[in-house]
Design brief:
Blueprint (H helix, E strand, L loop, with lengths): L5 H21 L6 H20 L7 H11 L7 H20 L11 H26 L12 H27 L1 H11 L3 H26 L19 H21 L1 H5 L1 H6 L6 H29 L6 H35 L3 H23 L7 H20 L1 H10 L4 H4 L2 H6 L5 H6 L6 H14 L13 H19 L1
Helix pairs in contact: 1-2, 1-8, 2-3, 2-8, 3-4, 4-5, 4-8, 4-15, 5-8, 6-7, 9-12, 9-13, 12-13, 12-14, 13-14, 14-15
Length: 487
């Protein structure tokens, strides 16, 4: 290519290859082994570009992202796949920032969150600034064809006209020849355009990933600051934090009966129903915990680290704030336990509970961090706990835990939700088959029939979205069906 940097040329080739691979793997297919194949191909391209190009050394976070991309092979849960993609984004973002950190003690959580935003915005930045640099630059003189090129083009034009005339006559002369021509040139334009569109989409994503992990995203939000706390807003921050603490104190003191009133209080005619008490309270308090964490991070970012009256006051208010949020989190779990006892457990409730556990851990780490003169450890520990959580979730299989929990309830036959159980992914199928003895004959027949219809052999044999859970679900369901027939 003329006037194009060799590194950009290789990057463009890899981006096109990833686009074609994406079209092959993801067309009319779900998520499974195709995610792993595509991601590993992308990371392989990154490694090869780093080896052949003039780039900085690879970050260890890239290998963590590669390890995370293997996990979708094993589980079928939509929630797990979303969490995995978030973790991969976090690993990629950390990899792009590692080379720019400089003095790490000056970095805040917001620097890393900003780099995650930069990584996402690179998807659009590639189109605006990066792709034009991948296109060959040709001078005006080079656009003028040579005499030989002109003669070839003229010959092709005359040949096309002759081919059209003679071909039309021969098509009219013979039915077999007509069918051959129709079969060859009967192109499905919508299908062709959809293939092109899918390939362009994955080329775009691939190009973005390659650019991010080689040249780095354009820093907009995550640009490292020499002195992120040079300007202090101690008075404003302490007023805000003190006001929110007062609100939490009033709320906790008034709502003690609702927080810890238990089964008897909820069933009181004057009190709220279970749905009002648990569902409304749990998700609202969970949202409060998340927002409270962000509030403390922002306040900490705005106050100078140097010891001062404002910093001392902020530290005290923060520790009180964390204690109050701890009470709110405890009440949220209390509501969840009560709600689960009546309505059972779902995957959504399970993952929200896990998220709150992570938020609680993050608050503990934050409470420790505000006592120290540096915050360098906090972002890395938080993202490390996210990585660990993803691997642990894949290992414990949350869907199976949900099913087993619902089977263990005392009123399982009256309260078991057959429709929801059958809507769950392949992760839940082994637990469902294993717990059929806890159900009535009618419920058991409904589940056996539903599982047999959903996990037919051909449904689990597709390669592109294959994963272990689907394969195992089909195997177990077929084995159970054969046993039922035998019995």
């Amino acid at each position: 290519m003329i006037g194009v940097n060799r590194n950009n040329e290789l990057l463009a080739i890899w981006a096109i290859a990833l686009g074609v691979l994406g079209d092959v793997l993801f067309r009319n297919a779900g998520w499974g082994v195709n995610i792993t194949i595509w991601m590993l191909a992308a990371f392989t391209a990154v490694a090869l570009l780093h080896r052949r190009g003039d780039y900085q050394s690879l970050s260890s976070y890239i290998w963590i992202a590669a390890a995370l991309s293997v996990l979708p092979i094993f589980r079928d849960s939509f929630f797990l796949k979303i969490i995995t993609l978030i973790a991969i984004l976090g690993a990629v973002s950390f990899a792009t920032l590692a080379s720019e950190l400089g003095e790490r003690m000056k970095q805040t959580v917001f620097t890393y969150l900003g780099r995650m935003a930069d990584t996402l915005l690179t998807v659009f930045n590639v189109v605006i600034t990066q792709l034009p640099s991948l296109v060959p630059r040709v001078s005006h003189e080079q656009l003028i064809p040579s005499p030989m090129t002109i003669r070839i083009m003229r010959g092709v034009a005359f040949a096309s006209l002759a081919l059209l005339i003679f071909g039309s006559l021969l098509i009219s002369a013979d039915a077999v020849f007509e069918k051959l021509v129709i079969d060859v040139f009967d192109l499905d334009l919508p299908t062709i355009l959809s293939h092109i569109g899918m390939a362009l989409l994955w080329s775009w994503i691939g190009c973005t990933l390659l650019v991010v992990l080689t040249t780095g995203p354009k820093s907009i939000f995550g640009k490292p600051l020499d002195e992120p706390r040079a300007t202090g807003y101690a008075i404003e921050v302490n007023i805000v934090l003190g006001t929110i603490n007062a609100l939490f104190i009033v709320f906790v003191s008034i709502q003690v009966g609702y927080f810890f009133g238990g089964h008897e209080h909820v069933l009181d005619e004057a009190g709220p129903t279970y749905a009002e008490y648990a569902r409304r309270g749990f998700f609202e308090i969970s949202a409060v915990a998340v927002l409270a964490f962000g509030l403390v991070l922002l306040c900490d970012h705005l106050i100078p680290l140097a010891k001062s009256t404002g910093r001392i006051a902020f530290t005290g208010l923060t520790e009180l704030h964390i204690g109050l949020v701890g009470v709110l989190i405890a009440s949220a779990f209390h509501r969840l336990v009560l709600y689960m006892g009546v309505y059972g457990l779902t995957e959504l409730r399970f993952y929200v509970a896990i998220a709150i556990v992570w938020i609680a851990l993050a608050f503990v780490l934050l409470g420790y961090a505000v006592l120290l003169p540096t915050r360098a450890f906090l972002p890395r520990v938080l993202v490390a706990t996210l990585f660990i959580a993803v691997f642990v979730l894949y290992a414990i299989n949350p869907a199976a835990i949900v099913v087993q929990t619902n089977f263990s309830r005392e009123n399982v036959q009256e309260a078991f939700d057959v429709e929801y159980a059958l809507s769950m992914t392949g992760d839940a199928a082994p637990a469902l088959v294993g717990g059929l003895a806890n159900l009535t004959d009618t419920q058991r027949e409904q589940i056996e029939k539903g599982l047999a219809e959903r996990w037919a052999a051909d449904d689990a044999s597709r390669f592109r979205d294959w994963n272990y859970s689907r394969w195992n679900a089909a195997r177990i369901v077929q084995s159970n069906s054969q046993q039922v027939i035998t019995d």
